[in-house]
UniProtKB/TrEMBL annotation:
Ranges for domain FAD-binding: 4-335
Superkingdom to which the source organism belongs: Bacteria
Protein name: FAD-binding monooxygenase
Keyword terms, alphabetized: Monooxygenase, Oxidoreductase
One Pfam family, short name: FAD_binding_3
Alphabetized GO MF terms: FAD binding; monooxygenase activity
InterPro entries in the record: FAD-bd, FAD/NAD-bd_sf, FAD_aromatic-hydroxylase
Annotated Gene3D superfamilies: D-Amino Acid Oxidase, subunit A, domain 2 (3.30.9.10), FAD/NAD(P)-binding domain (3.50.50.60)
């Protein structure tokens, strides 16, 4: 078993990993690029096995308490008439609204608070270079903080991971989904309640409004569009793109665009997945979005990050040889990741129809999916594969 582990990234996966590594007897340092703990982010889902990992960390109740309170989702037309309604219980808590819905910043904060006494946290730094000396460990040079030697380095740096680039060069590319999404917070409107509301406009556009526990509303504007360089524009230019492309979208979009103009937490991304043939090299491994981001449309990124952290730490506790541990981590996680990346079954095109006819058809199918007799079949189409992993029990490794 290796003892000194550097984890990079302090969002969801990094702090969860730090907690489990410490639990299994390792010394952990977490280095986060941002100068301070990063709040922010919108509603994320914790599903199935991800929830079980939180339970094993003793955090399930804390996370449930901090949840957004979203009770389900309705699909509406331009007159705000409900065309299909999914209560969060409909698919056993594993449908469009997960049983555990929480703001990313709130979940990350809970995990950080839970692990900060168990690991040394360093903010405002990142890896400049790595020198893997094999048996002698790995020499890490930091951008600000000089050099240090570790037994292992694990990158939990999200989809844009620079350590992944150091390891694999530019061969690891995002697989784009022909979707762009803009996220921001706006004042609560009179129709905003405990249900999320999803509105489709022709041209592959959708507006999603979701409740949060802060008395505001979280908005997501989605645009079906092949990669065209929007991701390289400045924030103001990206806002302008959305303003122009959604100008005639109808429904409550004018107030949403007003909120967009004033939003100071606007975040815009080209949606895609990260697929790699291997998640480790020598003494360095990748975990969470850095290794296998499934995209926000899958609703599985956070669960994969939590489960990946648990399995990676557990396998490191089971094997004296880190290479065997990395191989076991990959063997256990790979099928689960493959399934998660196979979603959404309601693919981006179906979720954002281009024509009015497509929207009517989509709403009719969704409405059908709410009917009890059809629900099981619909569940197979809609549900992410949150339960489809047998979580190993690393209990014996703990007491070793
Ligand atoms: C600010 C923010 C907002 C988000 N908002 C949403 C959202 O609204 N909806 C959604 O579905 N998903 C969102 N996500 C992504 C979501 O958190 C992940 O899909 C999922 O939880 C898995 O998390 P992760 O910890 O693996 O990666 P991430 O959550 O992406 O975290 C990566 C962390 O690593 C840090 N980092 C990056 N590079 C380096 C480096 N070289 N060295 C050290 N640290 C580094 C980042 O600052 C970040 O804290 C957001 C992520 C972030 C960071």
């Amino acid at each position: 078993m290796s003892h000194d582990v550097l984890v990079t990234g302090a969002s969801v996966t990094g702090p969860a990993l730090a907690w489990w590594l410490h639990r299994f007897g390792m010394n952990v340092t977490v280095v986060e690029r941002s100068p301070a703990f990063r709040d922010g982010g919108q509603n994320i889902d914790v599903r199935g096995a991800g929830r079980e990992v939180l339970r094993r960390m003793g955090l399930e109740q804390a996370v449930a308490k901090a949840g957004t309170g979203e009770q389900g989702i309705v699909f509406v037309d331009e007159n705000n008439r409900v065309k299909a309604e999914f209560d969060k219980e409909v698919f056993g808590g594993n449908g469009p609204t997960a049983e555990l819905e929480i703001l990313r910043g709130d979940l990350a904060r809970i995990l950080y608070e839970h692990s900060r006494d168990r690991a040394e946290y360093v903010f405002g730094d990142s890896i400049e270079s790595l020198d893997d000396g094999g048996e002698g460990g790995i020499e890490v040079t930091f951008k600000k903080g000089g050099a240090r030697r570790f037994d292992l380095v694990i990158a939990a740096e999200g989809i844009g991971s620079s350590t992944r680039r150091l390891l694999f060069g530019d061969t690891a590319k995002r697989r784009p989904f022909n979707l762009y999404m803009g996220y921001f917070t706006l004042p609560k409107g009179e129709n905003d309640g405990v249900f999320a509301r999803w509105y489709n406009a022709p041209g592959g556009r959708s507006v999603l409004l979701r409740p949060d526990p802060k008395g505001t509303t979280r908005a997501v504007l989605t645009l079906q569009q092949a990669p065209c360089g929007y991701e390289d524009l400045s924030l103001d230019e990206q806002k302008q793109v959305l303003k122009e492309r959604f100008a005639d979208a109808g429904w409550e979009t004018p107030r949403v665009l007003q909120g967009l103009a004033q939003a100071d937490d606007f975040y815009f991304e080209m949606i895609g997945q990260m697929r790699l043939e291997c998640w480790s090299k020598g003494r360095t491994a990748l975990v969470g979005d850095a290794a296998y981001a499934p995209s926000p449309v899958s609703g599985m990124g956070t669960s994969l990050g939590l489960v990946g952290a648990y399995v990676l730490a557990g396998e490191l506790s089971r094997h004296d040889d880190h290479a065997e541990a990395f191989a076991a981590y990959e063997r256990i996680m790979r099928p689960y990741v493959d399934q998660a990346q196979d979603v959404p079954k309601l693919g981006p095109r179906i979720a954002n129809p281009r024509t009015r006819f497509g929207i009517v058809l989509q709403q009719a199918v969704l409405n059908l999916a709410t009917k009890p007799g059809i629900r099981n079949l619909a569940g197979k189409l809609i549900e992410p594969p949150a339960e489809k992993i047998d979580l190993p029990d690393y209990g014996r490794a703990v007491s070793r």
